[in-house]
Amino acid sequence: MATMADLLPTVEAEVAAARSFVTLLELEQEMLTKGEVEHLQELVDQKNGLAVKLAALAEQRHQALVAEGLTADRAGLSAWFAAHPKADRAHAAWTLLLSIASQARELNRMNGELIQLRMQYNARALEALLGTHRAFGLYGPDGQNTLSSGPRISDSA
């Protein structure tokens, strides 16, 4: 069972893992921006591994808080810091962790948008190649514009 003596090393380990996670998110963003997605699955696997590690470290922190009779959340940690005002290093590490987590959330949000854009682009490209979408103003197999919505004049009369 974790104790509050484990808090500083645990939060410092969380900071290191979160920094690594941010580095992977930045690499993912670069890959998505450049369209270099051939190694994206390897990156996802690395991110998943770090996410598991971060969850285990957070669980250690939660157990330490509960062992002290506090809630296993930010409020519990704030209460612990209020009761231990000289725990400057732990407080600084926690503040840094919150900042890194915020950066990770923003990068993850932006990467999600990049993925959506890439998926839309790929869908449009596939539709254009297969001729399954009528909104492009392309010509159909009969040589007629696919956007034409009104009656067509036939020259066969």
UniProtKB/TrEMBL annotation:
Keywords: Bacterial flagellum biogenesis, Cell projection, Cilium, Flagellum
Gene Ontology annotations of biological process type: bacterial-type flagellum assembly
Domain of life: Bacteria
Parts of the chain that traverse the membrane: none
Signal peptide from the UniProt entry: none
InterPro entries membership: FlgN-like, FlgN-like_sf
Pfam families registered for this protein in UniProt: FlgN (PF05130)
Database matches in Gene3D superfamilies: FlgN-like
Family per record: Belongs to the FlgN family.
General function of this protein: Required for the efficient initiation of filament assembly.
Name by which UniProt lists this protein: Flagella synthesis chaperone protein FlgN
Source organism (scientific name): Candidatus Accumulibacter cognatus
High-level lineage: Bacteria, Pseudomonadati, Pseudomonadota, Betaproteobacteria, Candidatus Accumulibacter
